[in-house]
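RETRY 2/3 - previous attempt timed out on the joint model. Re-submitting the same 654-residue input unchanged.
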Amino acid sequence: MSETILSVKNLNVQFITKRGIIKAVQDVSYSLEKGEAVGIVGESGCGKSVSVLSLLRLLPENLARIKSDEIRFCDTDLLHIANKDMQNIRGSKISIIFQDPMASLNPVLTIGRQLREPLIIHRMAKAKEANNKALELLRMVQIPDPEERMNNYPYEMSGGMRQRVMIAMSLICNPELLIADEPTTALDVTVQAQIIDLVKELRRRLGMSLIWISHDLGIIAGLVNRVLVMYAGTIVEEALVDDLFYTPRHPYTRALLASIPQAEGQLKRKLQPIRGSPPDLLNLPRGCLFAERCNYVKDVCRKEKPPIRRINDNHRCACWMDTTTSEVL
Amino acid sequence: MNDGQNIVEIRNLKKYFPVKHKLFAKQNCLVRAVDDISFTIKKGETLGLVGESGCGKSTTGRTIVRLYKPTAGSVLYDGIDLAKLSKKEMRIMRRNMQIIFQDPFSSLNPRMTVGNIISEPFVIHNMGTKKTCKEHVEALINKVGLKGDTYYRYPHEFSGGQCQRLVIARALALNPEFIVCDEPISALDVSIQAQIVNLLEGLQEELKLTYLFIAHDLSMVRYISNRVAVMYLGKIFELGESEEIYTHPLHPYTKGLLSSIPYPNPKVERTRTRHFPSGEIPSPTDPPSGCRYHPRCPIADKKCKSDQPELKSVGKQHWVACHLI
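RETRY 2/3 succeeded.
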């Protein structure tokens, strides 16, 4: 029997701004099994990053209002633990890689110093031991001349190298869960392929769980077991990766897949764009948030928000319609 | 050479940028952004230009419309050498060629209304009266799929995709024949990208436009382009019909680049074997000797280290720069 390591129930995150309250995440529930890789896809501003960052209290406290019924990581209740205990979890049990490695690394400290830091902070090793571990990890992420690189500063490395350092740093305490927030978006396609390969290989070796946030369906297809599709702060569909790509149910997922070129086969199929643009999070419509752009829209969609329905054990979808038959459920 | 088929012809184009490398250094370093490339763009086609960041693809686009003056070589537009034109002549020439940039927000002046932005080309070129000008602008706004009340609004009131439509409307104002699209969709959300690509395709059909489409999204380039040129460190490595390049790539770099594209298809992703290039693109200030790809190339031999390969025809309108093909 597999073991759930992360479970989030009815997460709501709001940002208080001068212009009003932004409902960044609404009623999001998801869970993650041990060793599983889950992808979160969606457009910018759909709440994919916020729904994960809020778990680790990485959002500015004075602006973000987080409400949830449950946020549980293994046996720890992340919702109610003290800030100090949260510090013990961040970086050691759950670690995170961000999009821009330059902004995540301290420009005035050497790579070696920054790699050792998590071990020292979490009191997992003494200086010498930490140094050896740092070297071992630089080798693991395939950085050439690791001894030399330990004394380098971030500016002396390329974007791809820095992202490798970030991965090494995030893995140094043997985390159980690695969160990757669009780590390859700033990189070239060849370097992206290298980083994705590296993460796949490391997952095979270390067996950690993974949450990969991306807007690129191509990356998601090759990397994860299960996918959550988010739109305007809500989860609209959740499915195993094959089901999502071959039998998508939600009109948004379908439209998203129809709007990107397939790199293979059926090439001259015309792209079908999704009309309009996502709703303003300050001023969300009543009813289904996708209704304005949806090809299947019916009256009920504009009146009431669709509940998330179970299609089978691993497939959930929030839509009033059965898109396979075009009938209202 | 020019049989009226080619709208743009690029001959041995070079663009170097000086950079101050070291304090007290006698000579400035040169970034060889574009280093001796030649190709043609046919009337009515879309030529895709792809490559990793820093390969010189944007510099090529900007040098063609003479936003940069070429260091050497020439750009012939309808047989006229653009580098030899005076400023005044160039201004008239610019009516025929336009450029669209990646970031629509920084391409639009936030203090001008949409009406003023789109009518600026008419003002600059002294065309039409105020009244005909407004009619033209409204027709353009309609053409790119925006509503009529757009005229008096400001750019900040529009989303990224809508702003890119405004940029396209402005580019179309003077009825150009040729448009350089420099990563026009990279800054947009996935669901919006297809809108802009379809708009560009529709306009091309309607107005018989020619595009140079610069992008790093390889699957989108395959979709939109008739022919594709692959660039690496200022050189063109492979050039040919889009389908030919994507299905039968010959240059090891093209193969590597195509192998790096993630496909939105889980079964394909699980089964395919990928051979993407190791390492990263070297600095263009000090490109490798011989073939510039040899340090990353899996099949490089002695000759690749010493001799630079020339672009040579391998039949079916397909050119490759590699010693081993």
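Chain A touches chain B at residues 43-44, 158, 160-161, 188-194, 196-197, 215-222, 241-242, 245-246, 255-257, 259-264, 267, 270-275, 277-278 (CB under 8 Å). Closing ticket.
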